[in-house]
Amino acid sequence: MRKSMRKLKSMAMAALLFPLAGCGGGGQQARTIAETEQESADNQVIETIMTRRSIRQYKPQAVDRDTMQIILNCGINAPNGQNKQSWAIRVVDNPEYINGITEVYKKKNPKAAEDPSFKNMFRNAPTVVFIASDKSYDFSQVDCGLLGENMVLSAWSMGIGSCCLGSPTRFMQTEPEAADYLKRLNIPEGYELLYCIAFGYPDEAPAAKPRDAAKIMFVE
Ligand SMILES: Cc1cc2nc3c(=O)[nH]c(=O)nc-3n(C[C@H](O)[C@H](O)[C@H](O)COP(=O)(O)O)c2cc1C
After folding, report:
1. How many other CB atoms are found less than 10 A from the CB of residue 118?
2. 84 has pLDDT over 50
3. Which of 36, 52, 168, 192 could form an S-S bond across to 156 if both were Cys, CB 3.0 to 4.6 Å?
4. Closest among 78, 128, 82, 80 to 102, alpha carbons compared
5. What are phi and psi of 126, to 5 degrees?
6. Exposed (0-12), middle (13-18) or buried (19+): which is 156, by Cβ within 10 Å?
7. Is the pLDDT of residue 9 over 50?
8. Which atom of ligand 1 is nearest to the CA of 123?
9. 164, 196, 211: residue to mutate for ligand 1 pocket, most atoms within 8 A of CB
10. How far is the CA of 55 from the centre of ligand 1 (A)?
11. pLDDT tens-digit series, residues 136-174
12. How many A from CA of 146 to the centre of ligand 1?
């Protein structure tokens, strides 16, 4: 039943899209605003993008590894410069690692742990994906960002929350007491840890943060 509903929905979507795709050469008809709105309301990719929020409170259990594998495969299918795949990806769902480095973090940032909701330095997530970029490739950071966005969005489409994080990896790279944990990631020679993404089953539903549409300009 759900399958046939989905098929009907995608046929309806195709019916909306096909006239535009198929009638190049001057026959293109402008869609009405209502049609465009309906199209985006029915579009699951758009819905996923627009409803995703950074999650900072999670249920305790790690994301199961089969689901993580899907998310990671979506990540490595991101567009990337010259298909160099200039990233290194390390997945940690071991509480010993997460809690151990959090103890180091707490020693250096005692105030953070005073927050009663504080569970760990990765915004309380049970699963963390670390992403390292290739220092020899000038677009590697773009590759790594696109990789991450694919993971974040595929995760959200399956009900898995996430939060991109810069500050924990900065801490790991600058704090000598965290060096053992950085070493355990086994980042390849010539790569450097860029950021990480926290994943887990959400335990909060934050509101959307405002975006500045004035940043966009069509150039004539
Ligand atoms: C490169 C990058 C670094 C970030 N670092 C942190 C961080 O260290 N701590 C944190 O809580 N959120 C971090 N975030 C999440 C942003 O705060 C969040 O995406 C932004 O406020 C917009 O909110 P939204 O994701 O819910 O739309 C980071 C996001 C990005 C893309």
Report:
1. 15
2. yes
3. 52
4. 128
5. -90, -15
6. buried
7. no
8. 11
9. 164
10. 9
11. 999 999 999 999 999 999 999 999 999 999 999 999 999
12. 15
- Decide whether any atom of ligand 1 lies within 6 Å of the 209 Cβ: yes
Q: How far apart are CA 27 and CA 30, in angstroms?
A: 10
CA distance 65 to 178: 26
Give per-residue pLDDT as tens, 96-124: 999 999 999 999 999 998 999 999 999 99
For the Cβ of 123 lying below 6 angstroms from any atom of ligand 1, the answer is: yes
The token pair at 21 is 């795709």
Query: Mind listing the domains of the chain with CATH numbers?
Result: 2-42 (no CATH), 65-200 (3.40.109.10)
Query: Does the beta carbon of 166 sit less than 6 angstroms from any atom of ligand 1?
Result: yes
Any atom of ligand 1 within 6 Å of the Cβ of 165: yes
Q: Give distance in angstroms: CA of 30 to centre of ligand 1.
A: 37
| Amino acid identity, position 201 | Y
**Structural element, H or E, at residue 196:** strand 191-200
Give the per-residue pLDDT at 36: 82
Ligand 1 pocket, residue 57 CB under 6 Å? no
Does ligand 1 have an atom closer than 6 angstroms to the CB of 153?
no
Q: Confidence class of residue 135 from pLDDT cuts 50, 70 and 90?
A: very high
Cβ–Cβ contacts within 10 Å for residue 90, how many? 15
The single-letter code of the amino acid at 35 is: E
The residue whose C-alpha atom lies closest to atom 30 belonging to ligand 1 is 164
